[in-house]
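Thread amino acids onto this structure.
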């Protein structure tokens, strides 16, 4: 298959990008692929909303810029922060024109407040903002005849000079597994976009769905694309303890914004001794406060008490949490929720410029898999959906211009070889893959999680290196499976995070090493 544009990932960033390109030029052929169904990804699970300045009487760009830079511990790129926040307003209006609706109060957008924000500025749709945006974008994308959608298609590797014997430092598309056809396809393209989301599944507790295995990052690493800030992994302070539901489930910090309080098993409101802002301190401080309490008290979780949030607000603002907890026997707001911190967001990723271009020509990275400079060492709550929207539009605009320039011709693309190796077979699921995946998650959580030490990082590096070599042996001697594909990416990124964490000698933002305390 040859297309003008290949988009890998169908979350907010991939979908918004494709819509912008298709809106501007209906002759550009676009294929969008997702490794699961089109709906699955981090976007769908976003509860809180999008941080955007819309009440100009009380709020201002300056206030949002200052909040972002303070949360990022002074490591954000000020130019990027400025344009993302200033362009955000227009991008959110566009999203509304495309069919997304947000909660309103007296005909105005109902704005919520989250930790680290000096004003109420989070636009939301109950506690289902992400799902609602995702559905609106999917409906819109299906109206464009020049966009083809391929679900259950998994990126294996990017096609680069290495496959073409060129020396142009360019990306020419990707090899992808078609899960249903059980074969590896070559999709060549003039422009390739990675919008593959984060990698929360590297850790034992994560708010991300299981498919968040850092595949775009792994493929970029193999293609020698520059990455930045990988050790800055943000942990969300409050995820429902997995023992209750079988897996973690996010309890948005808007619950704490509405009055929810944190207690340890002794009934102490321990956040008061960590920070004067207590439960409303920035995420990294609350996550560390909870983790410290769990470790000191040798407990598995702490309590989130939502009894100060009135019943009506629970029903109108947090219906999903209310329903989920009810089904698990936790009657809100009277009963407290058992919560733990969980890996949530990758602040780092593929280094891109202001147009979301990576250092490999023809390859863009948008959304959570990219490092734009907006978040620095710590993301301000609800700034990531905003970042995806702004960079999707910028990348689309640049794509239109790039496609008008000089690019390899069609015969060049047909000369790129097919995937060299055994075809995919779903029947071969090697037991070792599951074992290594679990071990990797445990190692990352124990040694490369919220609290790190130099000694722990060394232990992790040594063992991850051994796993990396074993995974390579499996890869070289077996047919390629979906699970192997994910594990190959997970182990590469785990190794990079562990290695790069040892190069950081200062605690900043979400990064915390006891040896530098
Ligand atoms: C529980 C939760 C709550 C959140 N709440 C908020 C919030 O309130 N506000 C906010 O701003 N942010 C929030 N975030 C963060 C935000 O949702 C994400 O950063 C954002 O949605 C990422 O969008 P994306 O387009 O980059 O990736 P995703 O939405 O994660 O989409 C990734 C896509 O890539 C595809 N993909 C991955 N690997 C491959 C592969 N190998 N081959 C093919 N396709 C692949 C997936 O199938 C998927 O379609 C939250 C995140 C979570 C998990």
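Threaded sequence (517 positions):
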């Amino acid at each position: 298959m040859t297309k003008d544009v290949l988009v890998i990932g169908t979350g907010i960033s991939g979908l918004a990008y494709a819509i912008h390109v298709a809106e501007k030029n209906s002759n550009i052929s676009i294929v969008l692929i997702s490794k699961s169904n089109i709906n699955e990804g981090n976007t769908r699970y976003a509860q809180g909303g999008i941080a955007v300045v819309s009440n100009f009487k009380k709020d201002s760009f300056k206030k949002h810029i200052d909040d972002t830079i303070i949360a990022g511990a002074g490591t954000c790129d000020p130019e990027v922060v400025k344009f993302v926040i200033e362009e955000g307003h227009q991008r959110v209006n566009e999203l509304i024109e495309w069919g997304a609706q947000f909660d309103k109060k007296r005909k105005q957008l109902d704005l919520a407040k989250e930790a680290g924000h000096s004003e109420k500025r989070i636009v939301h749709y109950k506690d289902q903002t992400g799902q609602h945006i995702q559905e609106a974008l999917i409906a819109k994308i299906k109206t464009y005849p020049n966009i083809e959608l391929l679900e259950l298609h998994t990126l294996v590797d990017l096609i680069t000079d290495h496959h073409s014997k060129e020396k142009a430092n360019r990306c020419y598309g990707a090899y992808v597994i078609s899960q249903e056809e059980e074969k590896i396809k070559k999709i060549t393209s003039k422009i390739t976009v990675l919008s593959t989301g984060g990698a929360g599944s590297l850790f034992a507790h994560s708010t991300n769905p299981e498919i968040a295995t850092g595949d775009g990052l792994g493929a970029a690493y193999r293609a020698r694309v520059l990455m930045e800030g990988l050790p800055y992994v943000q942990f969300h302070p409050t995820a429902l303890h997995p023992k209750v539901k079988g897996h973690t489930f996010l309890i948005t910090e808007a619950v704490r914004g509405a009055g929810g309080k944190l207690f340890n098993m002794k009934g102490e409101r321990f956040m008061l001794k960590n920070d004067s802002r207590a439960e409303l301190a920035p995420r990294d401080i609350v996550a560390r406060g909870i983790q410290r309490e769990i470790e000191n008290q040798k407990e598995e979780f702490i309590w989130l008490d939502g009894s100060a949030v009135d019943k009506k607000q629970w029903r109108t603002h947090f219906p999903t949490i209310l329903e989920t907890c009810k089904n698990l026997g936790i009657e809100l707001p009277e009963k407290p929720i058992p919560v733990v911190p969980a890996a949530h967001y990758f602040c780092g990723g593929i280094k891109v410029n202001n147009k979301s271009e990576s250092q490999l020509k023809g390859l863009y990275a948008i959304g959570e898999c990219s490092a734009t400079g907006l978040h620095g060492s710590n993301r301000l709550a609800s700034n990531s959906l905003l970042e995806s929207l702004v960079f999707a539009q910028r990348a689309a605009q640049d794509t239109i211009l790039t496609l008008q320039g000089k690019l390899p011709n069609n015969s060049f693309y047909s000369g790129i070889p097919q995937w060299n190796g055994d075809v995919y077979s779903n029947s071969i699921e090697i037991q070792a893959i599951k074992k290594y995946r679990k071990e990797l998650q445990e190692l990352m959580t124990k040694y490369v999680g919220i609290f790190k030490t130099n000694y722990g990082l060394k232990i992790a590096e040594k063992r991850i290196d051994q796993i990396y070599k074993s995974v390579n042996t499996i890869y070289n001697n077996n047919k390629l499976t979906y699970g192997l594909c994910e594990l190959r990416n997970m182990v590469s990124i785990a190794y990079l995070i562990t290695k790069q964490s040892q190069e950081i000698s200062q605690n900043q933002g979400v990064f915390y090493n006891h040896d530098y305390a």
